[in-house]
Design goal:
By secondary structure, the chain is mainly alpha-helical. It has three helices and three strands, in the order αααβββ. Helix content is about 40%, strand content about 5%.
């Protein structure tokens, strides 16, 4: 009788319990890991879209204050520093138009392409994707401001 009392009161896992847990973890990993792989590229593309939308809003505020969008020469830098070239902004907002005081890089570490006037709209903002080259598919696909409307 004392053997059973010790056995019932002992703590720990049996080999079978550990094996069942490992099998369950293996099944879960087999189902989840394939779905997670490839998601970082989608997350970067979504981040680029959000940043382009944020830059678009900042450019619209810039235009409200100054009467026009920054030129291609002035670039997106005009959102954080008063332009020193081209047509100077008369009513540029002190502190700029972007919260962190700097123009973000795209999620792949490249600068956004800014054209004003743009080929599709008053201005165009473009990220060339993971490869940093115009064109491409999947993770290398360009993300354009005119596609986000």
């Amino acid at each position: 009788m004392s053997y059973y009392k010790k056995r019932l009161g002992s703590q720990g896992f049996t080999l079978i319990e550990i094996m069942v847990v490992l099998v369950i973890l293996g099944i879960l990993a087999g189902l989840i890991v394939p779905r997670i792989i490839g998601r970082p590229d989608e997350a970067r593309q979504m981040k680029a879209k959000v940043q382009i939308q944020s830059l678009t809003t900042a450019l619209q505020l810039y235009r409200l204050d100054t009467g026009d969008y920054p030129s291609t020469e002035q670039g997106l830098r005009a959102l954080v520093e008063a332009p020193a070239t081209g047509e100077l902004a008369k009513s540029w907002r002190e502190g700029g138009y972007l919260e962190k005081g700097q123009v973000p890089m795209d999620p792949w570490g490249n600068e956004y392409i800014y054209l004003s006037p743009g080929t599709r709209d008053d201005f165009d903002i473009i990220s060339y994707g993971a490869d940093g080259v115009a064109g491409g598919e999947d993770k290398n696909e360009d993300i354009n401001s005119w596609d986000l409307e």
